[in-house]
């Protein structure tokens, strides 16, 4: 890991991060071809890409009920209990995010409000490859289920034998996924975005993936909703003299073992403890079955040594990390200093892994500094919000002058007239009721004959 020592009063420069983008030009070019091919050729393209990228010929793209049942019988009881426990916690957390439709009424009868409606169909993507991610199934499907989505479908790459990992299928069953398809990569994103003969079109695609998946999500965004374009995973650990070096080391490794491109940051005021952390890293790396991946990630990690706590949290907010661990003596006192972070883990007994699996908050988080302006996956990602308006005549009359003035300044004649014609109509009605008009014209200049009506 590189080490940068900030001088007194020096600010951390974002250019020092050397972050990888969520996708690159080559990935975008390849994904463009894949998306267009799937859009035009449907299932035939999905089968061809399965042979090309996954090395498997698929007779059926959809996972059968029998395959799911077999998966549930294959996995061990301890795993089932664990994912059921995690699913309950995730559901409980996300249940608290639900919002109710609301309406407010002014004294003059104007009613405005907001209506929440779940999506009809959501598509979640679960990556395979270096590892299987049943936890990703839970973190995407459970919030969709809590939100009230009618149908949840899932795409995930098949193995060389044409099957889906049983742990992933078991998690799908527990999380309430309705249909599972053996489709991975950019082609899976295209299939869910546009639909094929087998894979139904969804309203929104969520879930992480590699650079090609990220590029495909960027391409289909607008034709279908997406959650975010996720880049390599990352953690930032903030430590003071009370932190345990072994805890810091293993938490950095827990993020690094995901992917060689995963990024680890350590921000501290305690330069003297770096040797102890490094020694712990070396000891733990010797025990790791994913040592090669972990070392590759740590090699481009970054340590920032600060003089003051103010510098520490200024640096954290520039990094805007996906995961932020605050391993300090009184982390709750420092929470207010954090402006940009996807998920915040407070105290030495709260490793990031607890959030990845069972705590309840979502582990699908903004990466690459996007925590500066975006949020974790939530129930809000699976609902639509519609504005609702209902005016009485009194309310329209009260707002008429302001509407007509603004419409006139914008040069939108019909906007203003749409209000004025209603006012003149009511003037005509009032005159008729008072017997003050000959009954042939309402005065609204619209060519209507209200007597005949």
Can you walk me through this structure?
- The chain is an alpha/beta fold and 453 residues long.
- The protein folds into three domains: 2-20 and 231-359, Rossmann fold (3-Layer(aba) Sandwich), CATH 3.40.50; 25-228, 3-Layer(aba) Sandwich (Rossmann fold); 392-453, no CATH class.
- It is built from 16 helices and 14 strands.
- It has helices spanning 25-41, 43-54, 65-74, 77-95, 134-147, 166-175, 185-194, 211-220, 245-256, 274-287, 291-299, 309-319, 331-334, 352-357, 393-410, 413-434, and strands spanning 2-5, 102-105, 111-118, 121-125, 151-155, 179-181, 204-206, 225-226, 234-239, 263-268, 302-305, 323-327, 343-346, 383-390.
- The chain has a six-stranded parallel β-sheet, with helices on both faces. The chain has a five-stranded parallel β-sheet with strand order 6-5-4-7-8, with helices on both faces. A three-stranded antiparallel β-sheet has the order 2-3-14, with no helix packed on it.
- Helix 4 (77-95) packs parallel to helix 6 (166-175), helix 5 packs parallel to helix 6 (166-175) and helix 15 runs antiparallel to helix 16.
Primary descriptors:
453 residues; alpha/beta; Rossmann fold; 3 domains; 6-stranded parallel beta sheet; 5-stranded parallel beta sheet; 16 helices; 44% helix; 15% strand; globular
């Amino acid at each position: 890991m590189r080490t940068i020592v900030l001088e007194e009063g020096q600010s951390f420069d974002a250019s020092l991060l050397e972050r990888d983008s969520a996708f690159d030009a080559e990935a975008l070019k390849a994904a463009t071809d894949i998306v267009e091919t799937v859009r035009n050729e449907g299932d035939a393209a999905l089968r061809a890409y399965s042979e090309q990228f996954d090395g498997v010929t698929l007779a059926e793209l959809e996972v059968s009920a029998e395959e799911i049942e077999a998966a549930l019988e294959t996995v061990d009881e301890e795993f089932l209990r664990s994912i059921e426990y995690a699913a309950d916690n995730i559901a409980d957390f996300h249940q608290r995010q639900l919002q109710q439709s609301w309406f407010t009424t002014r004294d003059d009868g104007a009613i405005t409000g907001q209506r929440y409606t779940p999506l009809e169909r959501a598509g979640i993507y679960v990556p395979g490859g270096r590892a299987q991610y049943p936890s990703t199934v839970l973190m995407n499907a459970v919030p969709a289920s809590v939100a009230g989505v009618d149908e949840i479908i899932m795409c995930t790459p098949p193995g060389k034998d044409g099957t889906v990992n049983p742990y992933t299928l078991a998690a799908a069953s527990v999380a309430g996924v309705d249909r599972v398809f053996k489709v991975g990569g950019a082609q899976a994103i295209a299939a869910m975005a546009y639909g094929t003969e087998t894979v139904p079109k969804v309203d929104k695609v969520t879930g992480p993936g590699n650079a090609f998946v990220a590029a495909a999500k960027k391409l289909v965004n607008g034709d279908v909703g997406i959650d975010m374009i996720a880049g390599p995973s990352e953690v930032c650990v903030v430590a003071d003299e009370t932190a345990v070096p072994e805890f810091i080391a293993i938490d950095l490794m827990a993020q690094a073992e995901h992917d060689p491109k995963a990024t680890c940051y350590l921000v501290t005021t305690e330069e003297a403890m770096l040797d102890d952390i490094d020694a712990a890293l070396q000891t733990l790396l010797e025990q790791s079955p994913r040592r090669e991946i972990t070392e590759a990630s740590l090699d481009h990690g970054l340590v920032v040594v600060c003089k003051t706590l103010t510098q520490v949290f200024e640096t954290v907010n520039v990094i805007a990390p996906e995961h932020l661990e605050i391993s300090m003596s009184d982390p709750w006192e420092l929470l207010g200093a954090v402006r940009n972070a996807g998920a915040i883990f407070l105290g030495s007994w709260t490793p990031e892994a607890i959030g990845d699996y069972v705590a309840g908050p979502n582990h699908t988080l903004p990466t690459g500094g996007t925590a500066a302006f975006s949020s974790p996956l939530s129930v809000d990602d699976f609902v639509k919000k519609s504005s609702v308006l209902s005016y009485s005549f009194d309310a329209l009359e009260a707002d008429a002058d302001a509407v007509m003035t603004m419409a006139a300044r914008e040069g939108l004649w019909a906007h203003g007239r749409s209000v004025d014609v209603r006012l003149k109509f009511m003037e005509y009605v009032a005159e008729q009721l008072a017997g003050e008009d000959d009954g042939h014209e309402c005065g609204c200049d619209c060519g209507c004959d209200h007597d005949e009506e």
